[in-house]
Amino acid sequence: AATRLCPHPHPTVRVRPLTCTETRRGDQQVVHSLGDGAVHVSAARHDATFGFSAVFDAGASQEAVFEGSGMRQLVELAIDGFSCTVFAFGQTGSGKTYTLMGPLAQSETQPASPALLGLMQRSFTCLLDQSRSRGSDLALSASYLEIYNEQIRDLLSPGPPCALPLRWSKTRGFYVENQLNVEFESLEAIVSLLLQGVVQSSPPPAGSQRRRTSAHALNRHSSRSHALLTIHIRSRAHHPPTWFLQASACPSKQGTLCFVDLAGSERVKETGSSGELSVEANSINRSLLALGHCISLLAKPRGKRTHIPYRDSKLTRLLARSLGGSGITLMVACISPSSRCLSETLSTLHYASRARRVTTRP
């Protein structure tokens, strides 16, 4: 089949509002959107401007982020058979989970306001609308994993938590063995699967497979793991007439749409973490460092690249194809405008700037 050229979404930036705590504390706003994809950071000894495909300031709605980031086009490309990924990156408490999922307080019995729904739910609606418009010829299923302290766990499987093995093969690349894949046909069904992976209290109940969150000085609901929700999309081949023997003339297409909610980078001194929280923070930071190293090497021209160390962490192994392979990837960099978070904000913006130079071959 001929290779089809398609757009590659560039990194986008979202600036959250100052929190009530930051305002009461007297934190200064040091990040400002200049329009046309430019964001300016201005503070003592720091004055820098960064350019991206889109910058969403504190007043941007969830709908504006969905439409302006290229997320709708990513859904359509996944339906067309491409491997698509969107991941949110940034400091803990910068709004990553809110951008992807909306308010944490939502549940099946108390859903969030439609205006506050995140990229995930809006993508599900878009995907199911497309399925209905095509006469329901799409077979949809989902898997949901978390990486907690370098162990991969299935957020959908019943029973006590258990680590799943990560394998590699020439045909599939890196894959998780024995993960559960659940079919769905409605918005209610996929949102139910999504909410199964969210826990509102910490520590989670004994035997819970739900995602780990904890409270610390910077975030009351800090994600302590990386979560990957993957939608598998298969276009059912239309059956040819019985007299038509060349069934290969009506092939099916298989695409994926993966949402990656990364745990936030954090400094133990700032969060006041100790004990188990400190161990979790070190594990999170090591995996994010490995991810940043891979992105830095991938940003170099192809002729000057050295070996890409995907095997340095479980996270980079699972994202190998999305980062530098045959996938199409959108990065949403979430940042705080607070002067107290200046160092982490600059780090996130430099990170996204490097990711902007990475190209794949879909």
Per-chain topology:
Elements: E1 12-15, H1 20-25, E2 31-35, E3 38-43, E4 46-51, E5 54-56, H2 62-68, H3 71-79, E6 83-90, H4 96-101, H5 119-133, E7 138-148, E8 151-154, E9 166-169, E10 173-176, E11 182-183, H6 187-196, E12 213-216, E13 219-223, E14 226-235, E15 253-261, H7 268-271, H8 276-298, H9 314-318, H10 320-324, E16 328-335, H11 342-356
Parallel strand pairs: 1-5, 1-16, 6-15, 6-16
Antiparallel strand pairs: 2-3, 3-4, 7-8, 7-11, 7-14, 9-10, 12-13, 14-15
Rg over alpha carbons: 21 Å
How would a textbook summarize the main sheet?
A: 9 strands, mixed
Here the CATH topology of the domain at 12-102 and 118-148 and 164-197 and 226-235 and 253-266 and 279-298 and 306-356 equals Kinesin
CATH architecture of the domain at 12-102 and 118-148 and 164-197 and 226-235 and 253-266 and 279-298 and 306-356: 3-Layer(aba) Sandwich
Shape: globular
CATH superfamily membership of the domain at 12-102 and 118-148 and 164-197 and 226-235 and 253-266 and 279-298 and 306-356, which one? Kinesin motor domain
Determine the fraction of residues in helical runs and give it as a percent range: 25-40%
* Helix/strand order: EHEEEEHHEHHEEEEEHEEEEHHHHEH
Q: Which residues sit in consecutive blocks of at least 5 with pLDDT less than 50? A: 1-7, 199-209, 213-222
Number of strands: 16
Task: Estimate the strand proportion.
Answer: 25-35%
What does the average pLDDT come to? 82
